[in-house]
Amino acid sequence: MEKNKVITNCKVLIIGGSAGSLSVLLQILPQIPKLNDFAIVIVVHRKSTDDQTLEDLLKLKSKIKVKSVEDKVPLIPGFVYIAPSNYHLLFEKNQTLSLDTSEKINYSRPSIDVSFESAAEAYGESVIAILLSGSNSDGTNGLKTIKNFGGIIAVQNPISAEMPFMPNNAILNTNPDFILNKEEMLDFINSINKKQD
Amino acid sequence: MIKDIELETLINDVYEYYGFDFGSYSRASLKRRVERVIQLDGFIHFHEFLSKVRYDPEYYKRVVDEITVNVTEMFRDPAFYAVVRNEILPLLGTKPFIRLWHAGCSTGEEVYSMAIMLKEAGLLHKSLIYATDINATVLESAKKGIFPLRMMKEYSENYRTAGGKEDFSSYYIANYGIAKFNEELAAKMVFSQHNLVSDTSFNEFDLILCRNVLIYFDNNLQKRVINLFDESLAVLGFLALGTKETLKYSIDSNKYKQLDKEKIWRKIK
């Protein structure tokens, strides 16, 4: 992890993942004491039938509050938002989230690319993205867009990923600011917007 | 990717040339849809696309058809249909005549789903389903009651999860990759073009379904549409929205009572 990059103006941390990402999220998110003036948005591929599982587990285990995503829900710093299954999750410029049931992208709805690209357009350089474990190529194009708009991109180290394809594909096709082992992710998230002594 | 200002120019020009107002559509989704058409049709420059939309009414129609989202399925969200089957239809069944409005019906998969449930509840003979959409092309397709045969396995599972007990394949005839649904179902449907942005109420209904349409509208337009539904709904009638949509920002909550789990509200006054 690079040491001299201090991230100070983050409004949204968006985390994308597919197969093998849930265990990472369940390991890290409950350990975060609070969010320093930014929101977390999670976009993971999962079966439409177990929509509530991740949300319920996080509500149970996590200190930071989880908000259910409904149409046009305001995006408020300090909260975690989870993309519902079977909808694409989009960012509006008036700080709300909106949903879309259009065609699957990369065989996925929600698609990580769709949400990443939309976050980049709405929040520009105030976006930080992390792409986790997974076995398809979703997320890579979205990371490129975030980078083009001045945001910061991080990728789970494929060696530490249950399914290395997705982070690997991102590393091959983008130039991530950070490549993080599972153990480094918590510190990374806690360092966001942290005031320097 | 198009610029925000280009999207606003398109919205203004479409309104000026054709009178259709996309101004209250949610921008993030609308922008993606426009970018998708531009890419599908191979335009390199936005201004070429814009001038084609302006001067070619046939192309304008295509753009509207492509911008509106037409992804749907039979018995979409089976848990929702189970509640309609078990809790709503028995209440509607006490009426001498049942009027339903499916607003934003797209290619009709959910309309045929509803007709199947009405039939199984013994109510189809005294029901009439008005199915409307802004998009004339999808309505033509919906009228035919023809859906891809390859989807039937999934639809049949949805049907069973929603409480269906019959042999699902008895509702259609399979032929060369298509499934043609029984005429008996379509006989109780009236398809017509209706624009929620600008058209008014046209009847009084006992059940209005409008699922995953409001998500494409901003809050002002959502209020307009909910108000239109309110004007079109009989007292004690039901309004059903998509699983992530809500009435709570749009109308006086004393007028409607939400059912336990699903996005179904009853008009109580």
Task: Please explain how this structure is put together.
- The complex is a heterodimer of chains A (197) and B (269).
- With 197 residues, chain A is α/β, with parallel strands linked by helices.
- Chain A has a single domain, classed as 3-Layer(aba) Sandwich (Rossmann fold), CATH 3.40.50.
- Chain A is 29% helix and 22% strand.
- Chain A is built from 6 helices and 10 strands, in the order βαβαβββββαβαβαβα.
- Chain A has a 7-stranded parallel sheet with strand order 3-5-2-1-8-9-10, with helices on both faces. A 3-stranded antiparallel sheet of chain A has the order 4-7-6.
- In chain A, helix 3 (112-123) packs parallel to helix 4.
- Chain A starts with 11 loop residues before the first strand and ends in a 6-residue tail after the last helix.
- Chain B starts with a helix and ends with a strand.
- Helices cover 42% and strands 19% of the residues of chain B.
- With 269 residues, chain B is of the alpha/beta class.
- Chain B folds into 2 domains: 4-67, no CATH class; 78-267, Vaccinia Virus protein VP39 (Rossmann fold, 3-Layer(aba) Sandwich), CATH 3.40.50.
- The chains are: A alpha/beta (197), B alpha/beta (269).
- The interface between A and B is medium-sized, with 20 and 22 residues.
